[in-house]
Amino acid sequence: MSPDPSRPVDAVLLAGPTCAGKSALALAVAERFPVEIVSVDSAQVYRGMDIGTSKPSREEQGRVRHHLIDVCDPAEAYSAGRFRRDALALVEGIRSRGRIPLLVGGTMLYFRALTRGIAHLPAADATVRAQIDERARRIGWPALHGELASRDPEAAARIRPTDGQRIQRALEVLQLTGEPLSQLQRLTAPPPLVFAAFALAPDDRAQLYARIDARFLAMMEQGFLEEVRGLRSRGDLHPDLPSLRCVGYRQLWAHLAGECDLATAIAAGQRATRNLAKRQLTWIRSEPTFCRIRGLEDPALAPMLAELAALAGRS
Questions:
Q1: How many angstroms separate the CA atoms of 223 and 221, rounded?
Q2: Which of 42, 97, 180, 189 is the most buried (most CB within 10 A)?
Q3: Which run of H or E residues covers position 103?
Q4: Does residue 240 lie within any of the structural domains?
Q5: Cα dihedral value 171, 53, 277, 28, nearest 10
Q6: Same structural domain for residues 217 and 103?
């Protein structure tokens, strides 16, 4: 809910783990209220990555206007800072058109950047990143994580030793600024807008995991492997890019590189997606400002509909 009852809500947030039904709920809401959907998904921003990201279909995007889908090439990096700037501008633009911004997705880092602000960190430096990537290829990300732990133990404690993307960023910031990332992140700017925040988080984790496994197999039938093969055939992409670290893509890329058979890659992709959902649920439990919705029939859905109705009344 709004953290400040004296200020009107500017937009509604709908977070949740992968495969929880967020997109279906958002489309159902769009049949009742004049919403535009802003994707909060670090994979759907990439063009040519459609099947493995469960991107809304052309028909769905035709029914409801969507934003922050297909906004950059897989060779680019899309950061939480860029998302925050884009999302804040979109919220204001949507409101100016008399419509309701509904921000939907599962990239929890983006929600945190939006609701808590973000430190003024240096922009990505391609040369520095290439140097770090080269060192990772020689000695491995766990070794670089150990180096980070000696220089910024607070940041290292929050980062898994195999999370190359976040290790790279923390070391990059150290090299560019001489300051630990953890220290810079304390200097956050408060968000200029007010959000009503909700999270679709089902109680039955076993059922969620079963849906995740089934959806991965369905994506394979839809041509997920061919999608990854097409990305690989470009010749300018590599598995250290943020786009190709996305769950599913990383595992199928490894198969195409001859590192494992297809069955192993599929099982690894399913497992990585389940682990992602587990981390997303953990984040939701740690965020008291997000009102939890356990399903489409949950009475807790009423406050979300009330916020949308209030926004519609102000449009």
A1: 5
A2: 42
A3: strand 100-105
A4: yes
A5: 130
A6: yes
In a domain, 23, yes or no: yes
Residue-range definition of the domain harbouring residue 246? 11-118+188-314
CA separation for the pair 16, 237 (Å, rounded): 30
DSSP-assigned states of every residue in 51-80 = TTTTPPPHHHHHHS-EESSS-B-TTS---H
pLDDT band at 182 (very low <50, low <70, confident <90, very high): confident
Sign of the four-CA dihedral 108, 110, 112, 118: positive
How confident is the model at residue 117, as a pLDDT? 81
Asked if residues 126 and 62 have their Cβ atoms less than 8 Å apart, the reply is: no
Which H or E element spans position 198? strand 195-200
pLDDT greater than 50 at residue 143: yes
- Euclidean distance between CA atoms 85 and 132, whole angstroms: 27
Of 89, 96, 35, the closest CA to residue 305 belongs to: 35
Tokens, residue 150: 């000696």
- Alpha helix ranges (H) inside 140-189: 141-151, 153-157, 164-177, 181-185
